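User: Structure with manganese (II) ion, tokens only please.
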Amino acid sequence: MALKPLHEWGISVNDILISAGPCSAESEEQLLETARGLADGKVSFLRAGIWKPRTHPGGFEGIGIKGLEWLVNVREELKIPVGTEVAYPAHVEACMKYKIDALWIGARTTSNPFAVQALADTLKGTGVPVFVKNPISPDIELWIGAIERLYNAGLRKIGAIHRGFSTSKKILYRNAPNWKIPIELKRRIPGIPLLCDPSHICGTRELIFSIAQEALDLLYDGLMIEVHKNPSEALSDSGQQLTPDQFHALMRRLTIKSETGDSREYEIRIKELRHEVDHIDEHLIQLLGKRMDIAEKMGDLKRRNNISVFQPHRWEEIINSRRTAGEENGLSGEFVFQLFQVIHEEAIRHQEESEK
Ligand code: PEP
Ligand code: MN
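Assistant:
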């Protein structure tokens, strides 16, 4: 994909792109005051939802088209580009009428290829920057597919926003970060500007710094952060919005990282450490190969004795003992569990294959 690099989008971007603003536009005064509070915050575009996809009916579902007028007034008064979420072709048409500077497709919409295609058809020829939020489910193909639909419609200013994934597990966050998915997205579409939306990942404002810093450590191109002049009165996502002061404090606290540096000492030391890691990885792979050879022998033995490949008690014993050994070696129990799930699945495949 030959996407336009971020610095050619016509939106001013400092080291990273920052989009900030309320979850929802609630009144012209709320929008204007919030935007005023963001002044000098190096914000590339003000964000505000006009049409809100709420899980249950009856909540605040957005102010609608009237909000576009407010956005345009704020843009004129503060000379700041503005952006909003679109879910239907009619939303795109209204945004184009008001010359909205940037759009994003929400997580629920990205999950629906019919909806994305209808948006792509309407966006054709507009040239407007569009960000695609990750789908609700941890399905990278749906995310890439939505980006492809926009690309095939001729758009070149396409970005991605990582806002986390729904999970049934009890976790600290509102949406699981699942970092490996956005990392893989960037590998599959190297030129795509990738933003992190720590507000929707975290769900609570106290957690935002650590997720935002992690995104910068992972070389993200920017952040989208929800800011409200008075979060406790917000009509949506009240617990995760920052006040403008909190937003400025967050910006001061964050450290922007770069992929390479110019310290000779760093270069020498990182080379040595990488050499050690390469060596360990080589051993890990050799050991895993040996482990699978043994799995094949066990497969033969089990088959000759009419014994099932899967042994629930043995599996339980493996999980518990490896988890404990992992913790003794500074590894998290969850990491070791997931690692051995993958190893065990591969061992079963080898045991089955030894039959063929
Ligand atoms: C939003 O940005 O306010 C929003 C609704 O986000 P998401 O699509 O990530 O839930
Ligand atoms: Mn929100």
